[in-house]
């Protein structure tokens, strides 16, 4: 793909978007199917770089993953005790979910493994998974006193269940512990400071593993085998739909229908916030896709207003803050985001990147240690902006430029991480 992409202003967006498969659920489907002893078909799998990293790692552990012409996966697992020692270093690429979840799974296996990732992933904190996993008896070492990848994992003498109060709300940390807990010799109880996405818990239920939820705690008993479903249909990713929700809201003369959007309540903070900002959003055709709720969503242009986004909702919209910042620039009044310091340890420091790159378009955004302050509405100018090689930054910048005077984005092809067709879909929705 190009080194730079140029997007011009649009007079409106119209059409229907089939939302690509959920990234979080796609990862989990391959990991769990890899531990099953009967084959699993996965439809609407997200064929994007992050999920390909998980497929690559699971293949290296002996799992067969085949893909047909329509993109349907056929996964033949190795059974609960059947993974084999990889011949080489496992590469998680840019994917935090691949690295953190597999750390929990691999630490409970009776073999040696090493995991690494790209330059961004090697800078992201890993002690948050290594600390609780070490309490369970797992042996994981990493660079700089086990703070960063590469990670070297050696077999545990015994895997113990733990009671763990998580210091940060993180589905990746929770899921790493849950995966290791399956192999433990006693139950595990995890308590979250705020509810994070619960796709692992729901995927466990899909594979016949009971999960108990009591208040903010989750408890799980060790198992000996999984009972796999024949088919998993992955819902569309609300984090990908978020770009269209904001784009159609802020570009006058727009109406979009978003088909097959996952509306798991641990992910729908973006809908709550946009509605509170005055967005015209209608949720229709609610249904189930396995253990996950899905719906179609109609969104039309609306004048938004600024709001306060506080710490308690952040885990439910953690990946949507960059595009919400764009929405706030078009809203009347002040938007304040607080309690979002986790954004500083994503694919890039997203608080810094949002302020810096939208700033190049003339936006005045105040960056605080844990959030952003944005007074709207603001007039944006055409500019050359950098994606920081972060998929969600590139897509947020694309929406900001399309809704204003245009934008040129350097390093645009990082959208391949979660939404490979993003620019093509955007081009097809323009009314001009
Ligand atoms: C994810 C959890 C979130 C999210 C990430 C995907 C997952 O990260 O930001 O994009 O699949 O569990 P944290 O668990 O670090 O908050």
TrEMBL record:
Enzyme class: transferase
Record: active site: 319 (proton acceptor)
Catalytic reaction equation(s): 3-phosphoshikimate + phosphoenolpyruvate = 5-O-(1-carboxyvinyl)-3-phosphoshikimate + phosphate
PROSITE patterns the record matches: EPSP_SYNTHASE_1, EPSP_SYNTHASE_2
Pfam families, per the entry: EPSP_synthase (PF00275)
GO CC, alphabetical: cytoplasm
Residues annotated as binding phosphoenolpyruvate: 23, 96, 124, 172, 350, 392
Residue intervals of the Enolpyruvate transferase domain: 11-426
InterPro entries (alphabetical): Enolpyruvate_Tfrase_dom, Enolpyruvate_Tfrase_sf, EPSP_synthase, EPSP_synthase_CS, RNA3'P_cycl/enolpyr_Trfase_a/b
Pathway assigned in UniProt: Metabolic intermediate biosynthesis; chorismate biosynthesis; chorismate from D-erythrose 4-phosphate and phosphoenolpyruvate: step 6/7
GO biological process: one example: amino acid biosynthetic process
Claim: Amino-acid biosynthesis is one of the keywords in the record: yes
EC numbers, comma separated: 2.5.1.19
Any one GO molecular function term: 3-phosphoshikimate 1-carboxyvinyltransferase activity
Alphabetically ordered keywords of this record: Amino-acid biosynthesis, Aromatic amino acid biosynthesis, Cytoplasm, Transferase
Highest taxon in the source lineage: Bacteria
Annotated residues for binding of 3-phosphoshikimate: 23-24, 28, 170, 172, 319, 346
Record's subcellular location: Cytoplasm
Keyword Oxidoreductase found: no
Subunit structure: Monomer.
Family, as annotated: Belongs to the EPSP synthase family.
Role, per record: Catalyzes the transfer of the enolpyruvyl moiety of phosphoenolpyruvate (PEP) to the 5-hydroxyl of shikimate-3-phosphate (S3P) to produce enolpyruvyl shikimate-3-phosphate and inorganic phosphate.
Protein's name in the database: 3-phosphoshikimate 1-carboxyvinyltransferase
Taxonomic classification: Bacteria, Bacillati, Bacillota, Negativicutes, Selenomonadales
């Amino acid at each position: 793909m190009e080194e730079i992409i140029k997007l011009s202003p649009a007079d409106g967006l119209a059409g229907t978007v089939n939302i690509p498969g959920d990234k979080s659920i796609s990862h989990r489907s391959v990991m769990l199917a890899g531990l099953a002893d009967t084959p699993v078909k996965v439809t609407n799998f997200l064929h994007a770089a992050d999920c390909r990293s998980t497929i690559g790692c699971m293949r290296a552990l002996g799992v067969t993953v085949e893909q047909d012409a329509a993109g349907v996966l056929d996964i033949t697992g190795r059974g609960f005790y059947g993974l084999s020692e990889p011949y080489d270093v496992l590469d998680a690429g840019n994917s935090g979910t691949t690295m953190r979840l597999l750390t929990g799974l691999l630490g409970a296996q009776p073999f040696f493994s090493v995991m690494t990732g790209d330059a961004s992933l090697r800078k992201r904190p890993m002690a948050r998974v290594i600390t609780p996993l070490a309490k369970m008896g797992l042996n994981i070492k990493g660079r700089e006193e086990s703070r960063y990848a590469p990670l070297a994992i050696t077999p545990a003498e015994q895997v113990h269940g733990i009671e763990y109060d998580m210091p940060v709300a993180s589905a990746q940390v929770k899921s790493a512990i849950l995966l290791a807990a399956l192999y433990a010799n006693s139950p595990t109880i995890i308590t979250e400071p705020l509810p994070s996405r619960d796709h692992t818990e729901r995927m466990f239920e899909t594979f016949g593993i009971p999960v108990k939820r009591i208040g903010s705690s989750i408890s799980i008993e060790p198992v000996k085998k999984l009972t796999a479903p024949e088919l998993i249909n992955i819902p569309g990713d609300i984090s990908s739909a978020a770009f269209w929700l904001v784009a159609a809201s802020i570009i006058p003369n727009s109406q979009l229908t978003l088909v097959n959007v996952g509306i798991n309540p641990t992910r729908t903070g973006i809908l709550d916030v946009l509605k509170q900002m005055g967005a015209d959003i209608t949720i229709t055709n609610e249904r189930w896709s396995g253990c996950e709720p899905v719906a179609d969503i109609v969104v039309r242009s609306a004048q938004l207003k600024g709001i306060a986004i506080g710490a308690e909702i952040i885990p439910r919209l953690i990946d949507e803050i960059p595009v919400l910042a764009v929405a706030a620039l078009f809203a009347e009044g002040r938007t304040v985001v607080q309690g979002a310091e986790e954004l500083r340890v994503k694919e890039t420091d997203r608080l810094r990147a949002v302020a810096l790159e939208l700033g190049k378009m003339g936006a005045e955004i105040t960056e605080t240690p844990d959030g952003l302050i944005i007074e709207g509405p603001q007039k944006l100018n055409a500019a050359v902006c950098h994606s920081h090689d972060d998929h969600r930054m590139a897509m947020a910048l694309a929406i900001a430029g399309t809704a204003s005077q245009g934008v040129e984005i350097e390093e645009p092809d990082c959208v391949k991480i979660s939404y490979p067709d993003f620019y093509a879909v955007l081009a097809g929705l323009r009314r001009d």
